[in-house]
Amino acid sequence: MESRTGPNGETLYVAHSEGQRGSKGPFYVVYATEDADSRWGFFCGNCETFDNAVDAMGRIQCNECSNRTKAEEWDPAHE
What we know:
By secondary structure, the chain is mainly β.
């Protein structure tokens, strides 16, 4: 894992082996601890920011570059 400085100056750990494909680049899982004990959020591989949001359908969207994933589960009732 790669250590990076988070938005509040804390050390966060980006797991490049744990990613999800986005429309512009991958999203990587971020942990608060080096031993991957505490999951923190996601890191946008396109613009390299921690500023991402996840909705109730499991979609991740970068608030900086609008990189996004598709929903993990799709139900036609939501259309």
